[in-house]
Design a protein that fits this description.
236 residues; alpha/beta; Rossmann fold; 8 helices; 32% helix
Amino acid sequence: MSIHIGAEPGAIASTVLLPGDPLRAKWIAETFLDNATCYTDVRGMLGYTGNWQGRPVSVQGSGMGQPSLAIYANELFREYDVRTAIRVGSCGAVTEKLALRDVVIASGACTDSSMNRLRFHGLDYAPVADFGLLMAAYDSARARADVTTHVGLIFSGDQFYNPRDELMKPMVEHGVLAVEMEASALYTLAAQYGARALAICTVSDHIVTGEATTSREREQTFGPMVDIALAAAMRD
């Protein structure tokens, strides 16, 4: 039994979706999974296991930021033998190529965090998605007419309220599509544990245009992203 999740052995499936918001985890479990049961509510970070098309899937809230995500990812990979982890989160668009509610499948995650520099003794590690999951998600997304999907780089920032927004300009010029706060740590930890990881994010805020969704919309209306993640995770 792990420190922060505290679930019994066998309570968590080998495939886990990772929304940051625990209430989004609850909504996903109640909306997409059959026979979902809650295996943890430690610190209010809800986790559920149920079935999707007859196959076991878990959904675990991970909180905001890479340090929080890293706690849950470490315990899932190490203590519960999770082999596939897909972040289903929100992101802020940093280019007019994206619109509100577009879906971004992150091929790699740039960052301003020091976590990997500490881990790799000052070297720049490039955290990338599992290619099989990425291709499966892309194929699933292309089959949908209800969402516009982009594949490319995202930026995992340590600060939500960044006092120096101008620092993102060269990132955008080099292909970064959106900003979020967790994917870089997830990709790195999956590589450490020999697991598969992918981040799929819905544009909840547009930094260029100023458009934004509400907190309730972020919690309960990003269904296409979840469908894409489940289809990708379960493709044989």
